[in-house]
Design a protein that fits this description.
Elements (H helix, E strand, L loop, with lengths): L8 E11 L2 E8 L2 E9 L17 H10 L5 H17 L2 H17 L2 E9 L1 H4 L7 E2 L2 E5 L6 E7 L15 E6 L17 H17 L3 E6 L7
Parallel strand pairs: 1-4, 4-7, 8-9
Antiparallel strand pairs: 1-2, 2-3, 5-6
């Protein structure tokens, strides 16, 4: 048996994007990919919170259940998990990809890492850890010994309009040479000043055009 500390991971990445009155789901792993499957928005039937206020979002329900340690949250958690599981693994191709990736991980003695990338923030706040195990629909997938479920925030990949910066752009070049590996070594790992000359030569055209101002610190210290 392979010790847990030496096991690797097979990754399955699931993307969930809200788009108006529907959602787009995609998934990928080393075993294959599923792209842009259109799914309807799930319908939630959530209990009221401890104050009697209606709850519209599963993220709000989870916060209320955990904050107040509600003893009746078990059946509700399973129901939320069923809705999330139907949304994701109700897509046959994604369900098949899950089983293939999980099987590959098991054969190699590895764990399965399911990474959920959801947007916008309202969707990212859904309790994806409550996804159910297709092999055991009465158990959460995150409770399986061979599976880990994590949420990953989606990063902005498109440019943001900003006011242009008036030139020149200031560039501080700090020079620091790696230490020699031993007292008997007479040569530095690389020629620091040759690297400096090469970099400044490449930047010189922008300096000449007034677009860049370069300041070089040859002997940096904690004081400056």
């Amino acid at each position: 048996m392979i010790p847990l500390s030496r096991r690797g991971f097979e990754e399955l990445e699931i993307s969930v994007l809200e788009a108006g009155d529907h959602m787009w789901l995609s998934a990928r792993s080393p075993q294959g990919s599923v792209f842009a499957v259109k799914r309807p928005l799930p319908e939630w039937k959530l209990p009221r919170d401890v104050t009697g206020r209606p709850v519209d979002e599963p993220g709000e329900w989870l916060t209320d259940a955990v904050r107040h340690a509600r003893p009746d949250a078990g059946p509700e958690a399973l129901e939320v998990g069923r809705v999330l599981t139907d949304l994701v693994f109700g897509v046959p191709e994604i369900g098949t990809l899950l089983q293939q990736t999980r099987g590959t991980a098991g054969t190699a003695g590895n764990q399965l890492l399911i990474r959920v990338l959801a947007a916008p923030s309202r969707i990212a706040a859904w309790p994806w850890e409550l996804l159910l195990d297709p092999q055991r629909p009465d158990r959460f997938l995150s409770m399986a010994r061979d599976v880990h479920v994590v949420r990953s925030g989606r990063s902005r990949t498109y440019p943001i309009r900003q006011a242009p910066i008036d030139p020149p752009l200031n560039l501080l070049l700090v020079m620091s040479s790696p230490l020699r590996s031993g007292p008997d070594e007479s040569e530095a790992p690389f020629d620091l000043y040759a690297e400096k000359r090469s970099l400044l030569t490449e930047l010189q055209p922008m300096v000449d055009r007034g677009l860049l101002r370069v300041v070089v610190e040859d002997r940096p210290s904690v004081e400056r």
